[in-house]
Amino acid sequence: MKVIKLFWYTRLILIVFSCCLTFLSCNKDFDNAYWIKVQNPPTLKELQGLYDNLNLEDRINFEIDDSTFIRYKPEWSDLKVQFINDSTIYSILPLLPVGIRGRETIVVNLSNYREFILFENNEVAYYGKYIYQETDGIIHDPAFLSNGTLSLDNLLNGNTSFYSYINGKGSKLPVAGQRSANKMSSSALSSECAEYLTVMTCDWTTYCHETGQVFFRLSPVGTCLPPSEIRCGNTWSYWTQRAPVMQTICVKYEDPAPPIGGGGDGGSGENGGGGDTQGGIDISSLTEEEKMLYEETENEIRESCALNHMLQKLSTHGLKLIVDRQSGNPVYVFNTKTIIVNEYMVTRSDFVAHEMIHAFQHQNIGSTFHHHAQGLPGNINIEFERMLIQDVATNGLEWAQSVGVYFTRSDRDGFNFAVDAYIDLVEDIIATKDISLIPNFDIRYRDALQSFNRYGHPSYADSQILTTLQPVSLKMIFDGSYNCPE
Ligand SMILES: [Zn+2]
């Protein structure tokens, strides 16, 4: 354990190169080529027209106090098309909430749900809220529409439909509600409906003044318990309930078909075949020589049984690798799912593995991943989890980074104790390869994360810790489900 520390200073210089999450703007034009391949889904223009006609902006934006507004930015570049049946095509448009306070924008975290617009052909639009299933505040399956519940509000007639998703399969969720012949809510449900069911849904908000962040949570459908408080800087932040939302179900209406679910841990690890991909990673832009260099690096990375396991899960992510001579730091660019390295870095397994782990975190966290880019809240969670995955996964390999190398503030009291506790944690995961077998793991992880906040290299460790951001990628890799020859 002590020998490890000798490497810190010599390896420190390497850290400077491997700083990673960039925050590029996403104003990429929509790729029209995408539409040519499909039969006759509505055009982007038609959907944007429908979006504008429905006045969605005004209907879903809201204010949380006199000076703070939440706006939803439609992510048109992330529009996904689903063919439901011969006559029905769904288009799913993710919505990104942004807080506006005075002239500043503030970070909005949707703790346990995602919002989107679902277009049915180019005729009907639904406002969708997908709530992840949680146990003790931990989301077990971060894949969208995989394990959780979905509500769809028909924006034309005001009717709401509820669904339950289990392993990516959606079905109608039976809800208990109050039956009535009169409308209970201000819902715009049309008068042709004779019998209604009214269901109350509860949403919660908290504003952390210290970090300037807003958090939202939804209670599971049909429940309204206050969630437990969250950490906000040096204090705790308590949730307050926003106005309860009455959702109205017209008993005679038929529910639209549930959108097709994704993710789950189907986990068969199929490679996205065809094209110039290497284990599911698109390397088509590389020269022949760069490809050779990369293949050697990838083979080295796959010598880590855990990282090989991770790459199998990552093979459906659509990860791309680009070698760019001009590139100064290895980066993972979230909006194009691309790792960019220069021709030296492409030979460095530690650099490439570092960015691959970020790609895997992106796959698991989903569309809010970029909320945790460098300097933003939760970046420390991302980098700490990444470091821990890499330290455990590369144990014993020639190219492993020194365990504890990112702990750099040795002038602070308690430094050695903190590093030793971290190294112990690494060794315990190496020994079991299964997080669920480690007693008090969550507490030890949280303590180590807090220590890293105090003693870690400033470029990784100085951002606000988000207690709601769980190490899902770590737990997915070290779940005891893979066998490695020792
Ligand atoms: Zn990084």
From TrEMBL:
Disordered as annotated region, ranges: 260-282
Database matches in PROSITE patterns: PROKAR_LIPOPROTEIN (PS51257)
Gly residues composition-biased segments: 260-278
Designated name of the protein: Uncharacterized protein
Native source organism of the sequence: Sphingobacterium wenxiniae
